[in-house]
């Protein structure tokens, strides 16, 4: 057990029912330790520590993974359980991105979205209202419609924080606010709430091997799930690029077509992640959000 961090062995055994034999550190987390743990059965699981200063983060992630899995359409790591210190899921080893897996993922994502949510802004069942996206707090509260929810909980709180910090000027905040007045007029704004991953940038699109049968595909990891507009997940995929992105989007549209002109709305749906990144990483992302707002005002 000398190979395992303090407390990990006990949590893994309690949550999986099998003894932990050894652990291999994994990189990539901003605030958590992560390990590939080999069990006495020979199976491998993934263990992630509770991040400091982020109460409820593991609870929110576990609820998000279960909710996506309950759709019956997604590849997400199976949750073995979580306690106050660790989240334990199946371990999915990495594979090479492929066009076939991308197309399958596009169809799956469309079906996950179509599985729906009870309201825009709702948390996953059993998930906390006060959750996280990356290292930033994120409030989930059911709203009357998508424009009201998106403006009130996904744009305005982060704009206020950026203005208070001096990262955005009041005139720039006013530009973003003016762009939000367009939301109600957008095609598809009245769509029913979709079941969103919520943080679907390329780093959370994991190309891997199925631990059950060895097949390759795309797993969605590290979700910040909630009810929202499906175009927001697709805009997040566009934000930093993603392997075989056009194949993903093409298969998605074949499965469940989007409202006309959706590519012109990508920027408005990216306001949320850009503002979050502005809060976490500074002026560059905040300025991009202002640029997106100005472009939306010109085009609409």
Automatic annotation (TrEMBL):
Going by the UniProt record, its keywords in alphabetical order are: Kinase, Transferase
Q: Which GO terms describe its molecular function?
A: kinase activity
**Top-rank lineage group of the source organism:** Bacteria
Indicate the transmembrane segments per the record.
Answer: none
Signal peptide (residue range):
none
Q: Which InterPro entries does the record match to this protein?
A: Fructo-/Ketosamine-3-kinase, Kinase-like_dom_sf
Q: Which Gene3D superfamilies match?
A: 1.20.1270.240, Phosphorylase Kinase, domain 1 (3.30.200.20), Transferase(Phosphotransferase) domain 1 (1.10.510.10)
User: A Pfam family name for this chain?
Assistant: Fructosamin_kin
The UniProt entry's sequence similarity note says: Belongs to the fructosamine kinase family.
What is the recorded name of this protein?
Answer: Fructosamine kinase
């Amino acid at each position: 057990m000398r190979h395992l961090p303090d407390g990990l062995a006990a949590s893994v055994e309690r949550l999986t029912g099998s003894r932990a034999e050894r652990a291999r550190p994994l990189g990539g987390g901003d605030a958590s330790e992560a390990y590939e743990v080999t069990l006495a059965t020979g199976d491998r699981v993934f263990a992630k520590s509770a991040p400091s200063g982020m109460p409820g983060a593991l609870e929110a992630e576990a609820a998000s993974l279960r909710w996506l899995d309950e759709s019956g359409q997604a590849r997400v790591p199976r949750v073995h359980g979580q306690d106050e210190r660790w989240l334990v899921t199946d371990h999915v080893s990495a594979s090479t991105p492929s066009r076939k897996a991308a197309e399958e993922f596009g169809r799956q994502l469309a079906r996950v979205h179509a599985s729906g949510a009870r309201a825009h802004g709702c948390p996953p069942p059993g998930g906390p209202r006060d959750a996280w996206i990356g290292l930033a707090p994120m409030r989930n509260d059911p709203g009357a419609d998508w424009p009201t929810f998106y403006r009130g909980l996904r744009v305005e709180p982060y704009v206020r924080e950026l203005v208070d910090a001096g990262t955005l000027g009041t005139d720039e905040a006013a530009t973003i606010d003016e762009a939000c007045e367009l939301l109600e007029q957008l095609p598809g704004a009245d769509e029913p709430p979709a079941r969103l991953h919520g943080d679907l940038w390329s780093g959370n699109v994991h190309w891997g091997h199925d631990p059950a049968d060895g097949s390759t595909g795309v797993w969605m990891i590290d979700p910040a799930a909630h009810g929202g507009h499906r175009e927001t997940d697709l805009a997040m995929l566009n934000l930093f690029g993603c392997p075989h992105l056009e194949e993903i989007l093409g298969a998605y549209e074949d499965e469940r077509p989007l409202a006309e002109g959706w590519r012109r709305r990508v920027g408005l749906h990216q306001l949320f992640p850009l503002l979050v990144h502005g809060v976490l990483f500074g002026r560059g992302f905040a300025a991009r959000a202002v640029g997106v707002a100005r472009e939306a005002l010109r085009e609409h």
